[in-house]
Amino acid sequence: MNRTGVLIFEMAMRHLLARRRQTVVAVLGVAVGVGFFLAVSAMMVGSQRDFIDRLIDAAPHIIVSDELRSAPPQPGLVAYRAGAVRLRGYRTRNEARGLRGWQLILDVARATPGAIASPSLTGGVTLRLGGRQEALAIVGIEPDLEARISTISERLRVGRLNDLESAQGGLIIGEELAVRLGLNPGDVVAATASTGSTRRLRIVGLFKRGQAGLTDQAGYMLLREAQSLLGRPFIVNRIGIRLADADQAEHVANILERRFGYKAESWQARSADLLSLLVTRNVIMYSVVGAILLVASFGIYTAVSNSVIDKRRDIAILRAIGFSTADLQFLFVIEGLLLATAGVLLGWLLGYGLMSLLGSLRFPIAGDPEHLPLDRGMRQYLIAAGASLLAAMVAAWLPARKTAKVDPVDILRGAA
Predict the structure, then answer these.
(1) Where exactly are the transmembrane stretches of this chain (predicted)?
(2) How far apart are CA 76 and CA 74, in angstroms?
(3) pLDDT digits (tens, 9 = 90+) for 198-236
């Protein structure tokens, strides 16, 4: 910084110290704006990240099901693809549901570096106990693999996922269903499939209430026992895949669907509507907190504007001794930036304190006390500082332009 710059900086400091009340008010305005920006954005961004993490981890990144997005081509059309053949009134062949060649799908999915694939079979049964009946969608799984592709094991209130292997006919259901049927861990309940097959199942675990992706009408059991109960031996109708990089789910799902024809849905496709809502939520959040910072900059505008009016005589003298209009505008912009810098530093402390207070609060969620998810990253601090300094520079520059209208001759003669 040259001598002129140093002199301008010293004059800016003297101006601010001379009007301490206005300076304190302007600094506090920026500090409160920055502090609440940090607190609000920490909650909003933190809750959003927590939501997305739960969304990604709650279920496999890719689910390959035995659904087809379009009807398979008929053999006649395949055989005479290039011929003038038109088939009508043919009888379609009914095929058993399930993934054909699911072992090959598993091998291809596992060929992706870091990928884990788990087969499963879903089907409907009816639970009967003491004259009461409840429909239940059972999911036959391999516990070790399923625990690695989802967070099911973390959402158990009672029992462990591996208990399915240690108990014959083991079944894990939700707490709400257990309450409705009056079941407790260790109790036995009869289950009847649509084929008429009936088994006695033992409750070995309970899911917590209110878990995303888990309804109270779903239950888990061993894959081979589910195949036996549903009368579908060696059949699998769902493959869950977890990738090392969740962002690659869309790409890998497209590859699997093109190769095998079965519907492969990524977590992004399953949650497209929720993700679009998050974008709207972010726009609203940054609009509101941006308005807070803009209002805080009004204090700087008022302080600099009053300084320009009060220092008209000083401005005239400075211009008379050789300071240019740009130097004088720079002087008042420096004043605004000094106010904003002090406000940002104080606002960072205020925001840190607010986040610490919010982080110490605990709320009961689904029966468990949990802390507010907060984003304490430097990104929000830098956004608050950048937005505040930019707003302060504009707020200071607007009144600083008035220095160009000051005529030193009129001022020094006492005409104005």
Answers:
(1) 23-45, 283-304, 340-361, 381-400
(2) 5
(3) 889 999 999 887 666 667 788 999 999 999 998 888 889
